[in-house]
Design goal:
The strands form 5 sheets. Strands 2, 3, 4, 8, 9, 14 and 15 form a 7-stranded antiparallel beta sheet that branches. The radius of gyration is 19 Å and the shape is flat. The chain has helices at about 50-60, 120-125, 160-175; strands at about 5, 15, 25-35, 40-45, 65, 70, 75, 80-90, 95-105, 110, 130-135, 140-150, 180, 185, 190, 190-200, 210. Helix content is about 15%, strand content about 45%. The chain starts with a strand and ends in a 7-residue tail after the last strand. The longest helix is centred in the last third of the chain and has 16 residues, at about 160-175.
Amino acid sequence: MKWMMVCLLTMGCIGTAVAQPAERSFRYDLALDIDVQGHVSHVALPDGVPTPFVVPLQEAARRWTFKAPVRNGVPVTARTYGRVQLLLVPQDKDHYGMKIDCLSNGPSLTFTHNPSYPPEMVRDRVEGTVTMSAVVQPDGRVTDIQLKDAKLSQHVVVGTHHATEVFARVLRESMRTMLAKPEWVDGKPVATAIVLPMSFGLNGSSDGVANASGSALGP
C-alpha cells in the first residue's frame, strides 16, 4: 500500500513516580485510524498497557500526521499500526521522564515462535542485521518471504554467503508462522509489502540472543 507517515512528533515528557531505578524500554503496536486529511482520528492500544502509559501514548499518537492513501484520485480513510517505543528515563531518584517514539508504521506483526540464534553462528561469533521482505495479505497471511539484505560482522569464519543463508533460513521459518493484522484502506483490508530488519547479537556472552530491530515498513 503506497502511503507512509510523513511527520513524526515523537517526544512527550511527564514526571511520574516510578520505583525502578534504571532506564526502561517498552514497545507497543497502536492501531491508528487515519482520516482523509491524514490526521489520527482514533487510537486503540493493545491489552496490557500499564494505566500510566495510556494517556501519554494516545496523546502522542494523535499528534502524528500521515499522508492519506488515494483511490481514484480521492483521499480515503485508512487504518495502520504504529510501532511505538516508550522509554522511561530517570530524572532523579524518584521521578522519570517519558519519551515516546514511533519507530515505523505498517501491519501489526507478532512472532509466535521467536527466531533462534543458529548454534553454528554462536560458535563462530557471527553477529549482524538481516533484512527480510514479505507481503502481509488481507487475510493476515505472511507470504513472499525473501532475503533482502544482510550486514554481518566482518570476520566470518564460515563465509559471508553461508552465514547469510543460515540466518535467512531461521527468519523464514519464524515469519511463516507470524500472526499479522493487515492495514485497511477505505474500509477494506489490503495487502502490504513490508521490510523487516532483525539484529542478531551475542551481548558479549556465549549465548545468542536475536532481537527485532525495527518493524514492518510499507513500500
